[in-house]
Amino acid sequence: MTVTAPAGFEAAGIAAGIKRSGALDLAVIVNRGPSNAAAAVFTSNRAKANPILWSEQAIADGQAAAIVLNSGGANCFTGPEGFQVTHHTAETAGSALGVSSGDVLVCSTGLIGEQLDIEVLEEGVLSAVARLTPQGGEDAARAIMTTDTKPKTVVVEGDGWRVGGIAKGAGMLAPGLATMLVVLTTDGLVPPARLDEALRAATRVTFDRLDSDGCMSTNDQVTLMASGASGVTPDPAAFTDAVTEACRSLALQLQADAEGASHDITIEVRGAVTEDDAVEVGRSVARNNLFKAAIFGNDPNWGRVLAAIGTTQAPFDPYLVDVSMNGVRVCHAGRPDAPREQVDLTPRATHVLIELHAGEASATIWTNDLTHDYVHENSAYAS
Amino acid sequence: MTVTAPAGFEAAGIAAGIKRSGALDLAVIVNRGPSNAAAAVFTSNRAKANPILWSEQAIADGQAAAIVLNSGGANCFTGPEGFQVTHHTAETAGSALGVSSGDVLVCSTGLIGEQLDIEVLEEGVLSAVARLTPQGGEDAARAIMTTDTKPKTVVVEGDGWRVGGIAKGAGMLAPGLATMLVVLTTDGLVPPARLDEALRAATRVTFDRLDSDGCMSTNDQVTLMASGASGVTPDPAAFTDAVTEACRSLALQLQADAEGASHDITIEVRGAVTEDDAVEVGRSVARNNLFKAAIFGNDPNWGRVLAAIGTTQAPFDPYLVDVSMNGVRVCHAGRPDAPREQVDLTPRATHVLIELHAGEASATIWTNDLTHDYVHENSAYAS
């Protein structure tokens, strides 16, 4: 059910012919109302794709009636022609749905620097709009996949309302945002300002803390649309919690399907002075290729953890730090503790606990290991 | 001849038994004077190894009579016992050489978090001191190797004086400094302040611009010792040029021998507002795993260059940027230009030119590609 689990939404996912493989490659999700409230957060990369440039404008009024998403091409660094493709996609969808093109968001994902065929997009949008159904969420989740091996979906139940979501993303997973496309829906009656507030609170502690490979995309977009079709106005705190739960579930699904990864690594930092410090420390480890390669090799090389966190500005004394891996404290006060042979890194789920002993703040960063398959998939991506 | 090419220096490299393989693992380089002027720059990692903590103090007075370097163990995060090993190493060498232990620098490289055997070190230092010769530079260069496949050496001829050098480093190559040990010698008559000035000017544009894998070491040290044995006071500018030339040669030798690399990538950034901006832009590309994996696959994926530089704070318009690879401009003004098929990335030497069109400043960063072998070597390092 995914994005169509909340009342008021219809979706479709089709094979428009953008991907040469013939796989599903175009999704349309429509909000039938009564409300068209929406919010979105975008990549902080200054190199923004054309659909990002469009969607930033379209969402500015807090309203969106539909969103069109395609895989098979990022439509980034494709010049004015590329922007025309995005604009025409929104106009085609708006016209077919009887709404303003300014209420249609667009997302694209795939290779940077290649033009999309405007006619293929137009036919695809018309075909998808003709197949919209209240059961179309699963197809939509499949149509946005690139190197993903499985669709990512979530439904969270509220008190008389629901939050549903789909996500795609397997490479270029990094903060600000993690590189991906996400659509969240709710049938709660929630005004745009509240949607925006809940979405930013949720992404800050979920997608922004997923850092699979340190590479920031040009096409990230997380969109939240509210139909109000339940007639229920959710409690604000409960709504933020539900959106956060949906985002966390999708973020962990992205991590579990990251390109070539063999370990899902949870880096938990405790005892930092501030939460920002904890995030900086965790991220420095998540982005350290030597650490990531060691985990791939099932090697509890805690020296690489300390070498990584020593590059941060966060206030702590490296010679007071404890490091534990999968429950075994291998470093105590900056010195060897339990023998590294006691650590079992064969499970995919890997827990690294870093205790700074500098304060009371904590944060968790999710990342993956650096593997042969990561290198292979990303050296062959364009071919 | 290497570090013993300049007059006044003797060296030895021996197998002390630190490495289980029985390979050379300990080097001593002695400055016989008449001058003992010296300067050094150290890792900016806050997690500093014990030999760094020692050497920072020992060099503070601008004097050093000898330097002891070992491979086979980094002596980092080994607690007070580890510092004792370093201290005893300096005392043993000083006593055998008839100089103060405070004039003996120490460098270590190898795995973090494992103790060195203090008796093995002591015997090794005594044995090496007994074998010092004016021809010992080559052995010293071999004794500091870890995963290096070949020794790195250089000699630069001045006007009546010389600069010689050795270096080791293959992984953890990143700025501030690139991760490595380097010893430079000169027989020029140069006071400590001038040595320091020349060394900092040289490393700023050489080792600091080598960023093989973004990982900063805990043990980096570049040392420059002047014997004055030539009796010649070099022209200051000529001396800085010679030290810079020596550092550049060693930096490029490090790049060429980087762990698992199949491409030596020169990233040239032109048209930046400031040199710092150019460095930031170049470094963002050098640290982007997706770009590095693409180069491994001989894929001129310029979209990943733009996605990387879009994450920087440097002032420029992404939609004015040109990108060329090995002489073919594949991106002009943020749009596709020459077909990517025209780019031949099969040579090991790879040139990426990024023209920002924002100002007049430029900088060059050297890096390597991300390969299966890099992952393999760094996942198996500890075993």
Automatic annotation (TrEMBL), chains A, B:
Substrate binds at T146, K168, T179, E259, N378, S383. It is found in: Cytoplasm. Its EC number is 2.3.1.35, 2.3.1.1. The record marks A178, T179 as: Cleavage. SUPFAM superfamilies: DmpA/ArgJ-like. Keywords: Acyltransferase, Amino-acid biosynthesis, Arginine biosynthesis, Autocatalytic cleavage, Cytoplasm, Multifunctional enzyme, Transferase. Gene3D superfamilies: ArgJ beta chain, C-terminal domain, L-amino peptidase D-ALA esterase/amidase. One of its GO terms (molecular function) is L-glutamate N-acetyltransferase activity. The record marks T109, G110 as: Involved in the stabilization of negative charge on the oxyanion by the formation of the oxyanion hole. Heterotetramer of two alpha and two beta chains. NCBIfam families: ArgJ, PRK05388.1. This is Arginine biosynthesis bifunctional protein ArgJ. The gene is argJ.
